[in-house]
Design a protein that fits this description.
It contains seven helices and eight strands; from the N terminus they run βαββααββααββααβ. It is α+β, with helices and mostly antiparallel strands. The protein has a single domain, classed as Alpha-Beta Plaits, CATH 3.30.70.100. Helix 1 packs antiparallel against helix 3. The protein starts with a strand and ends with a strand.
Length: 199
């Protein structure tokens, strides 16, 4: 599964952006070949809006660019701030519950040497992932990587923010173990899911 990640920083009107995505952008997205879903989330405390769209193949994802270029401009104009677009491969998606609008989301950005990507994916699946899925309140875990750059994103969806807060200590311990394997951690964004579309 391939993923396009759009991150809007300095957002000034998150709710208007979500309305635009739901009412005007999704009707275009769902007609694109290979489309497999959209999730929109926000870190309101830091004026950040995140949009991910999922696609069957790289070719499907890339082919949708022309149809969605104006939509991205419209979203940026409505939300305010500035946006970046990045492409990833979804290598892990495990669900133990049903994420929904209102679920809490922790998004951690990672980086590693490209030559270590395969080994680190295997490590993630064998060691941190089972522990993450067993965490009370967890609904889903996703890992996305860019094999060329070594950039990665790990998202954990929780039923609510209380469950997410309670799990913070265990998350810190997992990060320490991963750092020993050469994985570098960037910012962690705490968000709320505002829109989910699954065809």
């Amino acid at each position: 599964m391939q993923v396009r990640v759009i991150t809007v920083t300095g957002a000034t009107d998150i709710d208007a952006g979500v309305d635009l995505i739901r009412d005007q952008v999704l009707p275009i997205v769902v007609t694109q070949q290979g489309y497999r879903g959209t999730t929109v989330s926000a870190d309101r405390a830091n004026d950040l809006l995140g949009i991910i769209t999922m696609w069957d193949t790289v070719e499907d994802r890339d082919a949708s660019n022309d149809a969605l270029t104006q939509s991205r401009i419209d979203v940026a104009d409505t939300v305010g701030g500035s946006f970046t677009v990045a492409n990833f491969e979804q290598v892990v998606l495990e669900a133990v519950g049903m994420p929904a609008v209102g679920s809490a989301l922790s998004v951690a950005r990672l980086s590693m040497s490209p030559e270590n990507v395969e080994g680190n994916i295997a490590y993630f699946q064998s060691t941190p992932l089972p522990d993450m899925l067993a965490t009370p309140g967890v609904q889903a875990v996703r890992m996305m990587v860019n094999r060329e750059t070594g950039d990665a994103i790990v998202g954990m969806v929780f039923a609510d923010h209380d469950s997410l807060s309670t799990a913070a200590g265990a998350a810190a311990s997992r990060r320490e173990a991963a750092t020993a394997k050469g994985i570098q951690f960037g910012d962690v964004s705490i968000r709320e899911i505002l829109l989910i579309d699954v065809p």
